[in-house]
Structures
1.
Amino acid sequence: MTERRTFLKTASASPAAGLPIRTRRRARRLAILASRWTPGSPARQVADRFLIGYPREARWHRPAMDVVSLYVDHAPEADQSRERAAEFGFRIYSSVAETLRCGRDRLSVDGVLMLAGQGDDSSSGPSGSDLIEPMVRVFEEDGQVVPVYWDEPLGLAQARGMVEASRQLGFPVLAGSSLPMTWRLPPLELPTGCRVEQALMVGIGSRRSDRYRALETLQAMVERRRGGETGVRSVQAVEGQAVWRAGSSGRWSRELLQAAVARSDSLQGETLKDGRPRDLVGSGELPRLVEHPEACLVDYSDGLRAAVLVLNGAVGDFTFAARLGDDSGVASTQFLLPPEPNRAGSACLAARIEDLIQSTRSPVRPERAWIAAGILDRWMESRKKKGVTLDTPELMLEYRPSAESCFCGS
């Protein structure tokens, strides 16, 4: 296998004109590269949308795409890949190259679903590097590329490698989770070019992937601000009582926290006893409900200050609030997570993946994943270093996002 250092050096070479994108007029042929195919895994959730279909525009929709090949890196006891292959008639190969070439001598698919996340595995860490490098090598050797969807790039090195390879070879990439794509209550999209003075994301969960989703969704909201994205200057992890002290000192806004928590449909505490909404922030009940609060404080290069607060025990939703300039006040929303096991939010993501493969154009700039994965790495590093503020020159990226909205209901 190509060493990661060699791969990154190759991928970051001066951009070329790009390789031709392989296209077909009939049903697109899809290859799946997965870490594992188990209940609750991204492979099961996303791939099933292309095998069985999903609701789209008030009807059941079956994509004009055929899953023709699969590579699975791990096959634990709960593996379902062989069962799915037998049911839907695709073949499982023993290497990434064989999967992309379908056992032939050249690239033989029209799109790649790289489902490298670990799903419900609480020990999941950076993923995808073992799949990216051989995929890129096939593109280079065969002189053709196809669109790629990559779920939850949980490490900076992998995200940067994918983005730089896509720039050099010219293949479109859609990277990230379903959370920025799901329904928003209310259906908030910040206007392109708006002034964002401060932003706050409330998240839940204990896995690395939960933190990534919160950061990615924060980035999806604030990248639309005036001037576009200009990069991240520093990241700091804060835990325990220091989280509340940071709010009291103004590092994150209590007003924004109140607005974000108010969008939750799963308030805990006294609300569970009498069924009435309750101001957890103003009442002072929040610190009692959250046994171990965590925060990631993000300073952007243009002066924007943002924070992600992990409030397990108080809420069960991901919510967002921002203070906008030009007398626009505070805007807030909830990112709807329909109940398991169906996880209907992945249907919204499947629609964007389908659009990517049909149009060979990504609706989302892949630099969003680079920044989110980089902040996540530094968040975890700052935690290990007892909350030291870390400079992030590797995240000084500039880009302008697409003006179109990509979430369900937009």
Note: Residues 1-16, 119-126 have pLDDT under 50 and may be disordered.
2.
Amino acid sequence: MRSPRSANIKLILIIAAVVIVVGTLFYTHYIVKQLLIKERKVADLYARSLEFLVNSPFDQSEVSFIFNEVVLQSIDFPMALTDDKNQPLSDIRLSARNIRFDTTLSANEQMQYLSSYIAELDEQNPPIRVIIRTSETDSLVQLLHYGESEFITKLRWLPYIEIAVAGMFILLGYIGFSYIKRNEQSNIWVGMAKETAHQLGTPLSSLMGWIEMMRERSSDDPKQLGTLAEMEHDLNRLHKVTERFSKIGSKPSLKEENLREVIESVIGYFRQRLPSRFGQGKQIIMSIESGDEINASINKELFEWVIENLIKNALDAMEENTGSIIFSIQQKGKSIFIDAKDTGKGIDMKYKKDIFRPGYSTKKRGWGLGLSLSKRIIEDYHRGKLFVKESKLGKGTTFRIKLVR
């Protein structure tokens, strides 16, 4: 089962990441809001200064100097001055500030561009009214349109850029650590498999010699010869298991094999041992549904191991005295599909991926390595796929193997 501690750590990391992202966005939004308020004050100061400059009875040269050196120097955002109907002033130099124009355009085209740009500015901020007295009784209303400075625009994008860069580094780090972890796990698997094969080799050779000696001494007793034949059969199977382990980590040779015959040989082995495994009262039907002869390039020993693991997994899932394990083989184009359908207790689909994780098991006995090894054999050595096609609690499970010719 998945470690609760590991799940809690992942949940804490996810929550921490969300808090950091949300905090960054909110803090940046706060800074942008404060800068917009400041720009609003500067734009309002410009409007009031313009009113004062035009309406002031003082010396225009002195006031203009203060206006140009103090007010205009603090403005770094686009502004445009229009009449009360949003029409730019006739002199474009008086209408626009900090707005870039295409110098190749004609004066009329530049005025059209400015009109459309003013509409964009109004979407960012509402215009400010500028009242200019033309006489003691009459006044002229103009509108000051302004937008965001380039600095604020960049600041708005800053948190998203930071999050994207951080996410990229996290992703690269995750991929790197996952690759290292997979390599470490692979080396452990290979080391354990080869050591197991090495340790089994010597006693198997010794047992084969002892059986041969016993056969020579029991040549006249048919019963003992039959017993020795069964012992030799199981010993050969142990030898086959040893060969399987010895092939883990090395590139196995693939040959064209008849899939029905390969699967049938594994089913035949289990049929003979079902009574001793479950008792005489339990009847499990195992069969193959395949009309055509379908061949595939496989390593027979390793592929048989996969079929054995699927059958063992199905048998362990049987809770009733009767049940069935049905294999079906079909070919569609260059793809070959082998389905193993059982009538066991089924799998909760939220654990669909966990069942292939090393160490995961819902049984009281076993190491939870069978399906993990099977997936590795199919995907790493046969370039295929092994997955749960469908499963229903209380109804059974269908595993699918996909091979490509």
Note: The chain has a mean pLDDT of 79.
3.
Amino acid sequence: MNTCSTSLTPTGRLVARMTGFLSGASFPAFALCTLVFYQFFITVMAFAPPAHGVWGDFLEDFRMRCFTYDPKGGWMQLSSVWVMLAEPLPLQAILFFIWRTPLQELWQTRRRALAPLAGAALALVGAIALSLLGLGRTQAKQTELPFPADRLRSELPMPSFSLINQDGQPVALSDFKGRVVLVTAVYSTCTTTCPMMLTKIRTVLDQLSPAERSDMAVVAFSLNPEADTGELRSITSKIYGMKAPQFHFVNGVPADVNAVLDKLNVARSRDEKSGQIQHSNLFFLLDREGRIAYRLSMSQTEQSWLISALRVLLTEKSL
């Protein structure tokens, strides 16, 4: 009599296990544990006391990237912390709603099965944290490329403008004749890259000597001229510890502001649902004659060149 083997192949057994994992309570329990451990990790990164060594460097770098942390002032943007902590909540609610019956059964009859699932979730979050630590150390060890001052140098015209700063004072391009100017474009309610750009500017200003700072200015054009009121721009300036006559967050008639941004080729578009503005992240460095000498992005390398580029221009004399 011929018999057929009913045993599954290794691939079949793997598929059967994965199907059982995804259709039962194990998957949502694992996912929920992972999200809870992620929230715990973010809480630790936000509120752990300052430290030294590898852990301290990692903690500071993480806070600067994710929470707009200012290492000099010791403050950070708590709204970013709450956003990162709240992001998993909708997914957690969905997981519990869809798998609530098997989850309740697991809790009532097989509670011990949660231990290995929680352990796997903790291991996953820990592995991700360690990978971030390793990435940060690798980036720190990379040799910084020298600033190619001559190769990047340009003499492009800066569009003229006459706008109003955060204090209600008129500001025009001609006001900065003979000084070096750092130009960028941000908006007050931005929660993504604008805080990083403003923090970078604050850091660069802190690295310059008082004499160097007195010989330069920063002009930030509003990317949201219809909504960036003087009050909002003033609050933003104060948050980052910058004020006139060093720092000018300018706005005006939307058509005039947008015309300058268009001439500078600052790409931007508004998400109609969220109201957020997607935009290019650029720094324009003007020499003492008001010409665009350097155009740098927010890439890791070009950020490191910003202070060098400023000092190249600050050492030059007016014609």
Note: Residues 1-5 have pLDDT under 50 and may be disordered.
